[in-house]
Structure formats: C-alpha cells, structure tokens
Amino acid sequence: MGTSQSNPGPGGRSPLVPPWADDQPSEPLPEPAPQRFKPFRQALGSFVSGGDGSNLRVAVGHYARGASGGGGGTSAARRLGSVTQAGGGLYGLLSSGATDINGGQEQFSLQSLSGKSCDEAISEISKVLSPDDGDGDKIRASMAHALAEALDGVEVFDPACITDSVIVDTMIGFLAESVFLQIVMDGGKAWNKAETPAQALRAESELRELIKVVVDKHMGPKMGNGTRPFSRQEIISLERTAIMDVWTEWEEYR
C-alpha cells in the first residue's frame, strides 16, 4: 500500500488526546465512546473496497462526529496540538528566515541551507522542526510533503525561493497532510479492504484530495496572500480555528 498501514489503529478506549499532543491539558475532555471508531472504519472500508465517493464522505462524517470526539472539532484541535505548535515554528522559520531550536540555545537559519539540493534542505527543515514525541514522525513527513509540493521544480535551495505564496501553500499543505496522516492511522485495518495496492493508492489519493480542498477552503482566506506577518501564537490560533471549521463542515457529511 501507500501511506496506509496494516495495523489495527487505536482502540476505542484509547484517549481522545494523548498527553504529548494536548495543547490545553487543563481543560476537561469528554469520555471516549468505546466503539467510536467502528462506524468510521466500516464506512472507510466500504469506500476502500468499492471506491464509491459517497462512502468516503460518510466515513469522514463519522470520523468528525464520533471517532475524533465530535464537539465541533474541539477535541480534534487538541489532538493535533503538536501539529499546530510545529506549524507555528514552521511559519516562523519561513517568514523570518530563522528560528530558535533546542530550547532557544541555538538558531537555525534558511541561509545555512543555501546551495544544498532542495530535497536535502527540506529534509533538514523537517527534521529540525519536528518534535520528539508520539507525533514526530507524522509531523516530519507532513512538513516534507508540504514543502516538496510548494517548492516543486526548485532543484537548488535558495532562501529567496521562499515567497509569500510558497509560505501560504506550505502552511495549508502541512495542516492538510497532517490531518490526512492522522485519519489514515486511525482507519487501521479498514485499508486492508483494498484488493490491490493500486486500489489502496487510489483511495488514499481521493482522501488526501478531499482533505486538502476543505482545509484550503477554511484556512486559505485566513492567511490571505501571505503578505501580512503573523506571530507564532497567531498562526497556532489560526490553525486551530481552521481545524474546528473543517470538522464543523465534516460533521454534516452523511
């Protein structure tokens, strides 16, 4: 298969928000429903096996309302807390050209990547900005994917290639890919319903596209044309709001 994995995914009694991801740990969370993944995985499995787009929308609706906790995306925004925090760091680096790392003891700059291959530069950026927690691999992969798409065609890295439009495209792509990978992981063995690897890849592609379109719809207008500078906290808040707007729309999918 592609990104999807042949594992059971989290169980119904797993926490809605792992401790490492929660950016609002002092706020109470609803109790997770023991069978919260079942309707989502059944609908996702039907989509993967048959390719019917209506089953994909049904699956996403179940994911938003049940599997991820519902509530207009409040639990989902907390589940993606590590993602939004990392997004704040990513935006800071791309917009200012440098960011503090290792607890503020060092600074990492785009200028240090000048002349390297674009692939190598993307790898270094993704590695430096990814947290060392349970979401680190997902965040690193999402950053690399988003940067590669935004810098498509660039072979040798130059900080001057980080234009306002590249920053906007990267931030939208990063959040969309992070959501995609989270849903893929939570889908568990529903992906085993694909009869061939090509069938699984088509299903992944359609899911990724659906997510990208809706994230772009809700996040793009908030970022505008990228010329307005945001603070780190403003970007984090913008990401969280976009997540909740996306989930609110998805909760209506039936």
Keywords:
two-stranded antiparallel ribbon, mainly alpha, 9 helices, 254 residues
Describe this entry's structure for a reader:
The protein is mostly helical and 254 residues long. The protein is 58% helix and 3% strand. The chain has helices at residues 38-50, 53-67, 74-79, 81-96, 118-129, 136-150, 164-187, 197-223, 232-250; strands at 98-101, 106-109. Helix 7 crosses helix 8. The chain starts with 37 loop residues before the first helix and ends with a helix. 43% of the residues are buried. The mean pLDDT is 94.
User: Could you report the average pLDDT, rounded to the nearest whole number?
Assistant: 94
- Please write the string of helix (H) and strand (E) elements: HHHHEEHHHHH
Cα radius of gyration in angstroms: 18 Å
Largest sheet: 2 strands, antiparallel
* Helix fraction bin: 55-70%
Sheet with most strands: strand arrangement:
1-2
Low-confidence stretches: none
Basic shape: globular
Portion of residues in beta strands equals under 5%
- From the N-terminal CA to the C-terminal CA, the straight-line distance is 27 Å
Summarize the structure.
This protein has 254 residues and is mainly α. The chain has 9 helices and 2 strands.
Helix/strand layout:
Blueprint: H1 38-50, H2 53-67, H3 74-79, H4 81-96, E1 98-101, E2 106-109, H5 118-129, H6 136-150, H7 164-187, H8 197-223, H9 232-250
Antiparallel strand pairs: 1-2
Helix pairs in contact: 1-2, 4-7, 4-9, 5-6, 6-7, 7-8, 8-9
